[in-house]
Every structure is written in C-alpha cells, then in structure tokens.
C-alpha cells in the first residue's frame, strides 16, 4: 500500500521583461527599540544576473555595503524614512508602510514607465495610498531579486544612520545591536533611561519612560 505525499509547489517569482518597470520594495528596522524605520525601492533591471543580490539578512555587514554600492550604480534607487514620532503616531506597521510609500514616490519615473510598472512588496500588506499596481509576496526578499535589492538598500541606509547615532550616544552600544532589543541594549535603557530616539510605545522602552 502506498501513501501519497503532500508537496508544496515551489515558489515561482513573477516574470517581467524589458518593457515593464519592476519595483521591489522592502523595509528595515520594524523590530527595533530605537531609531527610524527605513524602506528601499529599487527599479530593477530585467537582465540583472548578480547572485550576490539576496536577502540582506544572509549577507555580512561588509558585503552588504559593497552590494549596496553596486545596486546604486546599476539600478534606480529610492529611500524612504518614517520617524520615531511617526512610529508612535501610526504604529510600526503604518510607519513601515509610510516609509515604503515615500521610497517609491522618491523614484524618478516617466509617465510611460508608470503605465507599464508594478510594485512588488515584501510581506502581505499593500502600501496604502500608492497609485502603482502592487503585488505582495510573503518572504519576498528570499524569492525575488528586486525585493532582495530593496532589502539591502533599506538595511544599509538604516545601519548608517544608526552608526551616526552611536557617535552621539555611545553608552547605548547602538553600533553593535543597531537598535534591536538585545540584552545589552535593554540593560542600557534600564541604566541610563530612554532617549528621544527610542520608541516609547515598545516594550523594553515604555517601562522606563519618566524614570530618569
């Protein structure tokens, strides 16, 4: 007696050609306790073959910086930011989607390109208020190079800002943890109190508001 195995179909990324504009979009910093959330938008060339463009979390920091420069020189790039105040006002999802919208809208595109274009968004949430046609892809940074490129742009851009903030607030160790809720970061918040760059609605920060 044989049993039939259940199999999950292999994900097939959307296909596009040189007559279409493909824009990959992703964000970085949603899960952090400090700093803004960043988004990248990349108008991706249909004939890009670089194997180095993949999910930013799978690449070392040094290599991400190198690939970031490659993407800037070979593709059109937009960067969007949502501030800590906007994160507090809109919640982190709303702020991340706002940063994505700003990243796409910062791209310089012609009317013809807009008519033939589509935005591919990492995750399951469409970007609110965006006039482009959109396709959401869960795990898109693993499945589609255009989104992977956007993830690298967002991650490197945000990391550079966090390193700048580290120079101002070295006692919080931002350069090491990039604002994420590591034990060292949480201990620093407990010891020194939250800064204006910390997200006051997040657990790990809100408990210490007004304690210093």
Task: Explain what this protein looks like in three dimensions.
This protein has helices at 61-74, 84-90, 92-105, 111-116, 140-143, 145-168, 174-177, 183-192; strands spanning 21-28, 37-44, 76-82, 117-122, 134-137. The radius of gyration is 19 Å and the shape is elongated. It is α/β, with parallel strands linked by helices. The protein contains eight helices and five strands. It has a five-stranded mixed sheet. The longest helix is centred in the last third of the chain and has 24 residues, at 145-168. Helix 1 (61-74) crosses helix 6 and helix 2 (84-90) crosses helix 3. A hairpin with an 8-residue loop joins strand 1 (21-28) and strand 2. The chain has a domain at 21-159: Ribonuclease H-like superfamily/Ribonuclease H (Nucleotidyltransferase, domain 5).
Summarize the structure in short:
By secondary structure, the chain is of the alpha/beta class. Helices cover 39% and strands 16% of the residues.
Count, helices: 8
Tell me the radius of gyration. Answer: 19 Å
Full CATH superfamily name of the domain at 21-159? Ribonuclease H-like superfamily/Ribonuclease H
Strand content: 15-25%
Distance between the termini: 70 Å
Uncertain stretches of 5 or more adjacent residues: none
| Structural class by secondary-structure content | alpha/beta
Helix content: 25-40%
Number of strands: 5
- Largest sheet geometry: 5 strands, mixed
The average pLDDT score comes to 90
CATH class type of the domain at 21-159: Alpha Beta
Order of helices and strands: EEHEHHHEEHHHH
Could you please say which CATH topology of the domain at 21-159 applies here?
A: Nucleotidyltransferase, domain 5
**Going across the major beta sheet, what is the strand order?**
3-2-1-4-5
The coarse overall form would be: elongated
**Would you identify the CATH architecture of the domain at 21-159?**
2-Layer Sandwich
């Amino acid at each position: 007696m044989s049993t039939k195995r259940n199999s999950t179909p292999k994900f097939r990324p959307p296909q596009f050609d040189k007559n279409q504009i493909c824009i990959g979009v992703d964000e970085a910093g949603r899960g952090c306790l400090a700093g803004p959330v960043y988004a990248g938008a990349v108008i991706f060339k249909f004939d890009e073959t670089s194997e180095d463009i993949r999910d930013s979390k799978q690449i070392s920091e040094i290599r991400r910086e190198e690939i970031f420069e490659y993407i800037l020189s070979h593709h059109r790039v937009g960067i969007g930011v949502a501030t800590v105040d906007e994160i507090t006002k809109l919640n982190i999802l709303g702020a991340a989607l706002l940063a994505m919208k700003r990243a796409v809208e910062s791209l310089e595109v012609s009317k013809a390109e807009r008519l033939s274009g589509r935005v591919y968004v990492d995750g399951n949430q469409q970007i609110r208020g965006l006039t482009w046609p959109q396709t959401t892809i869960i795990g898109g940074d693993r499945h589609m190079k255009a989104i992977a490129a956007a993830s690298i742009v967002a991650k490197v851009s945000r990391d550079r800002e966090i390193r700048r903030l580290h120079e101002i607030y070295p006692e919080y160790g931002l350069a090491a943890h990039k604002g994420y809720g590591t034990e060292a970061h949480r201990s620093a918040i407990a010891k020194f109190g939250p800064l204006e760059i910390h997200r006051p609605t997040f657990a790990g920060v809100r408990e210490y508001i007004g304690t210093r």
